[in-house]
Amino acid sequence: MAMQVGPSDDDDAPMADINTTPLVDVMLVMLIIFLITVPVVIQTVPLELPKVSSMPTTTKPENVLIAVNNSGDIFWGVQRLDSKQELFDKAVTHLKKEIERQEAAGTPIELPEVHIRGDAGTEFSNIGGVIFTMQRAGFVKVGFISEPPAGSVSR
């Protein structure tokens, strides 16, 4: 491409080149805005979240089913318990009987599980107290029973 030094006859002709300088300026400004705002918008603690999978529970007769309703009442099966101390006493008795039964049968001892069904409106302190009581009684495996999401019927 040659450079012209003097006046030319084509001064009135339209320019055929596109001026891209304003476009580059706008793109650089947008890039700077995104570089500044993205770290501000994304403020999270880096965690490895658990993968959720729904598995059907295998209910054994020796497993303990505890329910906690909306008002914080505790049920062993369908029997209402008056206090966490009563829950503790019943859990210790149940665990001792189950261990004695398995020793008498000569089978390897497998501790029963606790399945807790909590009402959706129950305060966590009520359910947390039940978990703590059952762990203090000697139960190692404590699980929660929930409804599967709507539309996920498995056979």
Low-pLDDT stretches? none
Order of helices and strands, N to C?
A: HEEEHEHE
Order of strands across the main sheet: 3-2-1-4-5
Would you tell me the overall average pLDDT?
80
- Tally of DSSP β-strands: 5
- Number of helical segments? 3
Radius of gyration: 35 Å
Shape: rod-shaped
Q: Based on the structure, what is the oligomeric state of the protein chains? A: single chain
CA(first)-CA(last) distance: 75 Å
Q: Strand portion, in percent?
A: 5-15%
Helix content: 25-40%
Characterization of this structure:
With 155 residues, the chain is of the alpha/beta class. 37% of the residues lie in helices and 12% in strands. The protein has a 5-stranded mixed beta sheet. Helix 2 runs parallel beside helix 3 (124-137).
Can you describe this structure in just a few lines?
With 155 residues, the chain is of the alpha/beta class.
List keywords for this structure.
155 residues, alpha/beta, 5-stranded mixed β-sheet, 3 helices, 5 strands, 12% strand, rod-shaped
Q: Strands, helices and their partners?
A:
Elements (H helix, E strand, L loop, with lengths): L20 H21 L22 E5 L5 E3 L2 E3 L2 H22 L8 E5 L5 H14 L4 E3 L11
Parallel strand pairs: 1-4, 4-5
Antiparallel strand pairs: 1-2, 2-3
Helix pairs in contact: 2-3
